[in-house]
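#help-structures

NK: newbie question. if I give both the sequence and a SMILES, will the prediction place the ligand too? trying with zinc ion
OV: yes, paste both and it writes out the complex. here, I ran yours:
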Amino acid sequence: MTRWNRRRWLESVGLLAAASTLPAPKSITQLKSPEGSGKMKLDLSEFQPKSMLHVPETKVARSKFPVIDIHTHLSITAKSTNGVGIGEKMDFLAAPETLLPVMDKKNIHIMVNLTGGSGAGLNAAVEEFQQPHPDRFLTFTEPWWERTNQPGYSKFQADEIARAHKAGARGLKVLKTLGLYLRENVTEGPLVKIDDPRFDSMWDACGSLGMPVAIHVSDPEAFFLPTDRFNERFEELNNHPDWSFHGHDFPSNSELLEARNRVLAKHPKTHFIVLHVGNDAENLAYVSECMDRYSNMSVELGARIGELGRQPRMSRKFFDKYQDRILFGTDAVPNGTDTPQQIFGEELYEIYYRFLETEDEYFDYAPAPVPPQGRWRIYGIGLPDSILKKVYNENAARILKVKL
Ligand SMILES: [Zn+2]
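OV: that's the protein plus ligand as structure tokens.
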């Protein structure tokens, strides 16, 4: 028996705790308080409570309707400096042959690779996924951030959108680079504003070519607060200190969202897929206001079912009201271990399906021993078929102009 099989076998007969990626917990004696008060001390990072609730657990192995995952990252720009992608060279995170069997099993008809790069990088990304499997993979292009400080950038970027469109790009992806990393001298100097007019021709080019803009602006509200004992995402920020946008010269979360809103208002003919539930899943009332104000806005779910699922009644109302403008997305990244809520694989999709299709209660939003985006669990919203169909594929198919 190999070590792994032996472990599995021991687990199956209840002789060993289920496999965990965290270190084994310290023995109980080490948890005892040195003062002998009888109270034990336990490091937060070692606390992995198991729910004692006896509630239905539904396994949703396949989505009820075919899925378009509008938010995946199958390639990334190989080089980045201070959060800004530099150069055209791309890294490919998985081959189509490893993705397709999982897609078939989970009923995913199309994956949209948002980070398709620009120039030669975009050509390579199209060749890798979309060209051999045009019915299964679509590609978005990205702005040439490193040229944003050069004269004539506005026209160059608009022309590049047209060129990317000819090369097969179906939309434009804007990372949170804009607003949080891109600076006047690309990697140095003051931050460039999201509504800087040098990008106007880029937004307009997307509108006239019918290319939607998938935009990520700002980040969770907690990332703009001190990483302290009051921060609900303390562990996540403690694990990734570079994700904190508290202090320094960063704008506030609301300043970033308002700058984004000015772009939406100024370019009404361009469709914006505002990722991560409108970039403010913690505040659905605000996202609703934006949806009411901007008819050129839709939202996507990627990496935010942890937020939606902890406010199931509010979420359910949001899905009812905006059922024609919500797109299924996961923010899936093949491989890696850093962000369990995003690792492409069967488990990830099963959690999304369970959230959307069932009324199961208090389950994990990510395949991880400790909830990685905050210590809470989620509740399914049990959408009816008519809304499920729209969210799983119809809304995305309309915006991307594809037939399933
Ligand atoms: Zn993403």
